[in-house]
Design goal:
Distance between the termini: 52 Å
CATH superfamily of the domain at 364-540: Glycoside hydrolase family 3 C-terminal domain
Bound molecules: 1-deoxynojirimycin
Shape: globular
Amino acid sequence: MTTSTIQSLMKQMTLNEKIAQLLQLAGPFFKGSTEQGHITGPMAAMPISVENIEHAGSVLGVSGAAEVISIQKKHLENNRLGIPLLFMADIIHGYKTIFPVPLAIACSWDTELAQKSAEIAAKEAAVSGVHVTFAPMVDLVRDPRWGRVMESTGEDPYLNQVFAKAFVNGFQGQDLSNDLQSVAACVKHFAAYGAAEAGRDYNTVDLSERQLRESYLPAYKAALDEGCEMVMTAFNTVDGIPATGNEKLMRSLLREEWGFDGVLISDWGAVKELIPHGVAEDDKEAALKAIKAGVDIEMMTACYVQHLAELVTEGAIEESIIDESVLRILTLKEKLGLFEQPYRGADVELEQQVVSHPDHLQVSRELATKSCVLLKNDNHILPLTSNKNIALIGPFADSGDILGPWSALGVREEAVTLKQAFEKHLPTNQLNVATGCHVETITQQQLEEAVQAASNADVIVVAVGEDSEMSGEAGCRTNIQLPAPQLELLKALATCGKPIITLLFNGRPLDLHGVIEYSDAVLEAWYPGSEGGNALLDLLYGVTIPSGKLTMSFPDNVGQVPVYYNHFNTGRPQGAPDAQERYVSQYLDAPNDPLFPFGFGLSYTQFSYSDLELTSTQLTKDSEITATASVSNIGHFTGEEIVQFYIQDVVGEVVRPLKELKGYQSIILEPGETQQVTFTITEDQLRYHHADLSFKSDNGSFVLYVGTNSKDVLSHSFQLISQGRN
Ligand code: NOJ
């Protein structure tokens, strides 16, 4: 089918048939789904029933080849013009093979593996009938109280862009139309959902346009530049107007300025939410605002199907605005080949072979080992040797709740737990397992059993964290410490006088006071996915050496939040250690610095940085500078180091961040080996949004930093010359 045949199809469509394309409903509305059209809960309030399901153009959250084929078949039998349904689902970090959560994946800084994980997720989802995934989520995040930070790749605009691209490429592959094992990607949540005030989900976002463009928008743009087919709106306001009804954001910026002509979908219920937001009187006005803003598909509310026709009749909107949306939707259906192959990749037999394939699980294991971040390792307690007796203690010692939120079809009971992994590695008499406490409760008996198990061991491995309901959508917390019972457990174990290795399972940066001081080693495992236990054993015993680095700062305490590395300076000294000096920019009761900065992560070996040299200290628009630093492995293990490269613009027209990541390189060094790592500096890396929003660089002084994290760096100055400055 070509554009002209889509247009001639559209000519045959009634207005109501067109509007039906703009509605997305969840599985229970479709007869033929497992629930057989039985609608319960809040969905029952929808003024749509399974009987008038011709009012939908796409389906949300249904997968499984047999189910998708059955729904599509029934739909086509009843659809006068044979227009197939599009099946969309949240395939965020794996379909059945679950990978670490996105924030963890980012800590690998490994875009190739990230892309591979998305490719596998797409493959498993596509054979199970999914056409579009609601991913990647690229919202920049600075507030760990917000539960959805686990879905993001962190606080840095540059890293968010490179991961956005990797995920889009992984999901969509090289040839979306013909590769039936790929799915269309939908970048979300447009825009700036990650900046919800006070870290409370769905809350107000109020940013200057400069800040929006400088920090928050680049990752969405990067996904679109990579060919991402769809965009999802955000729940929040942007400059006083909810994103879903925001014409300036959607029509002027996304469509006109960026030229996006793909499908824009609202988030769940976000069109109707224009009413409680206080910008629409009723469903009809909500429909009017959303369609005018450019939202093509309304997810899970019925403002469009109930009111768009009326709005056309009344002359409030032109029918052409609906036609534009329908054209975009049908074009995507056509691009996915659905008119010719309405089941696309859905294949009941292939599904059995592809889903949870051992090769996929192997990639998940590899990615999990690279995603963990070693935060502390006193006296080289890690890696362990296999002759040690281990007490494995804590609510995550034998828990399958290591897949994390949004784990699609992942089955907790099938995830490899720590206990299972230890049992494969150690003889029974070397392993003693005790729960110690539940995630949020503790009993005296549990505590006593734990202390007993610990006293008979050489090393205590404590597995603690947040259960997966404590982060993710609507999973916000104001207290970002471990729940008190787990801190009590750690404190009690510390009295045993044995080395303690703490493994953390969580979806956000935590305040680790009460953990750090009682632990000899701390390994941030996040939610590591299907192969979590195996990956952690690989790290604990040094089969793999930790190399992950944080992509979101860990605050010293929640009162510092938001705390992020790429902040501005103030006019006053920052956090002067001299307590006599009052009028400086500091807290009276806490440091300014986070406990662990962006980019931080230890290895079992040590790296030393030296000799940062530049080929020139003067840069012009047409030249480049090569910076070289020597990195040496001065420890005893072969290890991987992520060498980071930052730039500071010392004087700008507007204030500039103290550091901005501009690149990084992963190198593997043998003990005693030194490598020269080079970075290229060019003028385009120095551009930023000026007060009038123009994007350009200024002449003047810059500082280049190279280091192992955003804080511990070597530095060198250079000048940008012969560049006009207004
Ligand atoms: C709401 C979430 O905000 C969004 O990320 C998700 O894709 C949709 N629900 C659909 O499940």
